[in-house]
Specification:
Blueprint: E1 2-12, H1 15-25, E2 29-34, E3 37-42, E4 45-51, H2 54-57, E5 65-70, H3 75-84, E6 89-91, E7 99-103, E8 109-113, H4 117-126, E9 133-134
Parallel strand pairs: 1-4, 5-8
Antiparallel strand pairs: 1-5, 2-3, 2-9, 3-4, 6-7, 7-8
InterPro entries: Fosfomycin_Res_Enzymes, Glyas_Bleomycin-R_OHBP_Dase, Glyas_Fos-R_dOase_dom, VOC_core
Keywords: Metal-binding, Transferase
Pfam families: Glyoxalase (PF00903)
């Protein structure tokens, strides 16, 4: 069972410009930044900005996706249900928390994720991304 929207990841062509927009102009709280990304937040929203050079070239596939939360106990059941529905996977999980990346019928990139911004930041404090900084 889905429990809510987990986070938004936006592929960006200029990380510094995008951080400035979301932090300085829109007022999101800057939680962490590293060489190729940043985590920002608002109450109830976790936003990840991820540098993707394909955004500069106009390639159709980038890292922009929408992640839905699920309970850890329900994760495998949900993944099995998605696989039984013949969804296509578009990425393998390489970050904290269980994730399953899949496409909807119109090829929108979606993710099923167990975890939160606080669990991700805790993991990143233990094993930071390259040049990662934290803002408390």
């Amino acid at each position: 069972m889905l429990t809510g929207l987990n986070h938004l990841t936006l592929a960006v062509s200029d990380l510094t410009r995008s951080i400035g927009f979301y932090h300085d102009i829109l007022g999101l709280k800057l939680e962490a930044r590293w060489e190729t990304g940043a985590y920002l937040s608002l109450p109830g929203l976790w936003l990840c900005l991820s540098f993707d050079p394909r955004r500069q070239t106009g390639e159709p596939r980038d890292y922009t996706h929408y992640a839905f939360s699920t309970d850890g106990a329900e994760f495998e059941t949900m993944v099995n249900k998605l696989r039984a529905g013949c969804v296509r996977e578009w990425k393998r999980n390489t970050s904290e928390g269980e994730s399953f990346y899949f496409l909807d019928p119109d090829s929108h990139q979606l993710e099923l994720h167990v975890g939160s911004l606080s669990s991700r930041l805790a993991q990143c404090r233990r094993a930071p991304y390259k040049n990662m900084q934290f803002f408390d």
